[in-house]
Amino acid sequence: MTHRSRRVRLTLAALAAGTAAAVGMAAPAATAATGPKFLKPGELPPHPTSPWYAGPVTPGQPDPLPVCAGESPPSISSHRAFWTEFDTNAVQVTVVERSTQRAKDFAALLRKKIRDCATALERQDPDMSASGRYYGHLNVEEGADVYGLHTASSWGASDIALLSVGRDGRTVTFVKWAQMGTWRHAQVADFKKTTKTAVNKLY
């Protein structure tokens, strides 16, 4: 296993995942009391043998920074991490921009980062193969888009992730679900329900 492969693998498996670099200035970070509502553990795709657990809604950037959604999330992000007792994790990151146009631009940047992610990962690490899929647009509030990412390393690791970007007005949310596995382990229908719930909680 190369040092680079280990680093990418740990990043993919981290409990936190986040968003892309900020598009200009935005409103202050949301909190659990004053900002958009976040997903609850029971609203994640069901795990067959474990409940979901959740950390608090936390202002600021997720740590570690995620793949597929940029190199430096804005400090005005708020995020919440989720996990099960096994190798399954999720994260939701929400940003409240100061205008609807900035939110549109930010959501578009996130979608581009996700679309380009597989190619970028292979360019960064020759020991990794990656492929992406687009699972379609969801008609919820101003809309959401759902994507998939599979990565496999030359030393045997295989991970599957589902990602979505949604918007309501000037608020943008990013949701990522991930576990060890292949495309057949992707809970696409359940993740689409999770995404709709996440976007419906925004304002």
**SS strand fraction:** 25-35%
Work out the helicity level. Answer: 10-25%
Structural class: alpha+beta
Instruction: Compute the average pLDDT.
Output: 84
Whole-angstrom Rg: 16 Å
Number of helices: 4
Termini separation comes to: 45 Å
Q: Quickly count the domains.
A: 1
Uncertain segments of ≥5 residues (pLDDT<50)?
A: 1-32
For the largest beta-sheet, the strand count, sense and barrel status come to: 8 strands, antiparallel
Q: Tell the overall outline.
A: globular
Topology pattern, helix = H, strand = E: HEEEEHHEEEEH
Number of strands: 8
Can you walk me through this structure?
The model is unreliable at about 1-30 (pLDDT under 50). The protein contains 4 helices and 8 strands. The longest helix is centred in the middle third of the chain and has 16 residues, at about 100-115. Strands 1, 2, 3, 4, 5, 6, 7 and 8 form an 8-stranded antiparallel beta sheet that branches. It has one domain (about 5-200). The N and C termini lie far apart (about 45 Å). A hairpin with a 5-residue loop joins strand 5 (about 130-140) and strand 6. Helix content is about 25%, strand content about 30%. It has about 200 residues and is α+β, with helices and mostly antiparallel strands. It is globular. It has helices at about 5-15, 100-115, 115-125, 190-200, and strands spanning about 55, 60, 80-85, 90-95, 130-140, 145-155, 160-170, 170-180.
List descriptors:
eight-stranded antiparallel sheet; disordered N terminus; alpha+beta; 203 residues; 4 helices; 24% helix; globular
